[in-house]
Design brief:
Blueprint: H1 2-10, E1 15-20, H2 25-33, E2 38-41, H3 46-55, E3 60-66, H4 78-87, E4 91-95, H5 110-113, E5 121-126, E6 136-139, H6 142-151, H7 153-156, H8 163-177, H9 179-205, E7 212-213, E8 220-226, H10 228-239, E9 247-248, E10 258-263, H11 270-291
Helix pairs in contact: 1-2, 1-6, 8-9, 9-11
Length: about 290
């Protein structure tokens, strides 16, 4: 809803929207509902985005991106995107759903991770992931915030968040920014390292399966299977072992890139990750035997 509010309020007839093709559905829907013309660029293709911006003649330009892409787990090149925004007098809208609370100093998010600060940044953070609650927030230049307060229909014409949510958020922010939050982020990074190292070994041991990892350093660690039926079968095999890892298929992801979307959290243990790795190893061994 925050993304719908942002893009429909800012994307009026005087604006143009430039959106990464792998942006979250809420950003895509917000851009489609806005009155501004929409141009999408291939994932991470900033050379094409630069050409699109150079041709644009509208007074308002909105570059829209996930910070951490929800299906690949990779990070947007926010420094380069901000440089383009500054060069072409554009705003950079950043959806940091998977970065807020996890990345950056004291969990302050992807902008902190890249040490970015600019009046051209419009930052959306969700409270439904690391903060453990619901809702979202937008941080931006006061002129942007004033405009949203007056024109963002999903914000204006809805019931306010309950006071209990605000109180719980205060507790979440203290935890995220404190020593326990730092310990949880360190633990999460150890789990990511453990998973990626052993998955790489597993993939090398069973090359005929064609599995591969996305280039992700975040908590989202997709294991690309390729074929839809194969991804579903692998998810079912893990489910039979008490491991729930969803199989993601087109149209959510591009054709031929069906995957298991492994999502780690600080609530997982090293033993949990090892259980998953053991389950994947058994499945790989069984599948290789069936193909032989």
């Amino acid at each position: 809803m925050a993304n719908l509010a942002l893009l429909t309020a800012l994307g009026d007839a005087s604006a143009s929207i430039f959106s990464d093709k792998l942006n979250h559905a809420s950003l895509i829907d917000g851009a489609l509902l806005a009155k501004a013309p929409l141009q999408r660029y291939p994932h991470g293709n900033l050379a094409l985005l630069e050409r699109q911006l150079a041709r644009c003649t509208t007074p308002v330009k909105l570059i829209v991106t996930d910070a951490v892409f929800s299906m690949d787990g990779d990070l947007a090149d926010l420094p380069a995107l901000l440089a383009l925004a500054e060069r072409f007098d554009a705003w950079l809208i950043v959806d940091d759903a998977h970065g807020f609370g996890v990345l950056g100093a004291r969990g302050r998010g992807s902008l902190s991770h890249f040490n970015l600060c600019s009046e051209r940044l419009i930052y959306m953070g969700t409270l439904g992931k690391a903060a453990g609650l619901g809702g979202a927030f937008v941080a931006a230049h006061p002129s942007i915030i004033d405009w949203l307060l007056q024109t963002a229909r999903p914000y204006i014409y809805t019931t306010a968040a309950p006071p209990a949510v605000a109180h719980a958020l205060s507790a979440s922010l203290r935890l995220i920014g404190g020593e326990e939050g730092e310990q949880r982020r360190t633990h999460l990074q150890q789990l990511i390292t453990q998973l990626r190292a052993q998955l790489a070994t597993l993939i090398e041991a069973y090359p005929t399966l064609g599995w591969h990892l996305c280039d992700s350093a975040t908590a989202i660690q997709p294991l690309i299977i390729g074929d839809n039926a194969a991804a579903l079968a692998l998810a079912a095999a893990l489910d039979a072992q008490g491991l729930w890892v969803p199989a993601i298929r087109p149209p959510t992801v591009p054709t031929g890139t069906a995957r298991l979307r492994i999502t780690l959290s600080a609530a997982h243990s090293a033993a949990d990750v090892q259980q998953l790795l053991d389950g994947l190893t058994r499945a790989a061994r069984d599948l290789t035997g069936a193909l032989a």
